[in-house]
Input
Amino acid sequence: MRGIGAGPVVKALVWVLVTAAMIAPVIAAANSPLLAWRDPIYIAAGFAGILGLSLMLLQPLLAGGDLPGLSGMRGRRVHRIVGGLLLVAVIFHVAGLWVTSPPDVVDALLFVSPTPFSAWGVIAMWAVIASGVFAALRRRMRVPPRVWRRFHTALAVVIVMGTVVHAVQIEGTIETVTKLGLCALVIAATIRTVVKLQVLAKRPRRQPDA
Amino acid sequence: MADLVTTRRRFLTSTGALMAVGLGGLTEPARAQGVAPTPSMRGGANNYRPGAPIVKRIGGGGFWMTGTVRRAGDGVPLPGQRIQIWAHTTEGHERDARSHGATLTDENGEFRLEMPQIVPAFGQAHGHLAYDSEEFESVFLRPVMRRSSDTSLSADFVLRPA
Output
């Protein structure tokens, strides 16, 4: 699927907007007053979470071929790499929190945490892990492409919704305005791609370069 | 049709009013039976370090943790009860020994301990309090601050004899 048949200005604008939305929360968080009262591992865990949310914006755009210069097979390859990075970010996030406060992480993983946002984060984490495992195994398991696409899209929706609810509710180093902006874009990009790829259609549209 | 709508609206209004009165009535007998014991909160005991020393103040202070301790049933204030307090503050993580301290209730069953400013940790600005001595059953609380800029937090204990 070709990206937007747009001129160089629009293409550049897409990249500027996407990059800004991804980097702004990181810069804002780097200026958070809370950093002064946190150990390096706790700080790293927080940033792993923020970076994970940033990477999440790329995924639907890559899958939909919406990033100029990264459509078709190239986009898919980058989508796979970013997916791997996202999995690493999630593991760092949880591991860093575990080191900082083991009982709080155990509570979250067992779904008995007093904070409602923990459960959403854990649900999203399992969906990320499941996505990674199935992406690695789908060739060997000979999963039909259409089944794979629906399953992967379902997991992606769970990942996005779980992560956004998780991120919106927390009070942490991530700054509110850049957080909400990034979350809104991630949701918009996800909806756009699900609609565009006609995942829910009975017969997926033929793709010229698939 | 209009009649049906009116009827339904009237039905909902009257049912709602009945329920409000009814539920209010239900809580009365419970109060009459006495003061119910405070249950421990989820995650209340996280990063608890038993035996924190009784201190005049935790660290540099500037933030107040306050509350009351009463006996279940008759609600009598309990003096001399040891309450342990810890939190993620401007001076340390929850697990750090320096973030922990204890205080005793006065003759009115009230306690008040100065500590460093609590800052948000694990997504919420919250504190931890424990009653964990012999006489009564242990209770672990985890109150959440309404705003992270608040400079005080309170929690009340109603204890059941062990």
About this structure: The longest strand of chain B covers residues 63-71. The longest helix of chain B spans residues 2-33. Chain B touches chain A at residues 41-47, 88-91, 93-95, 119-125, 142, 148 (CB under 8 Å).
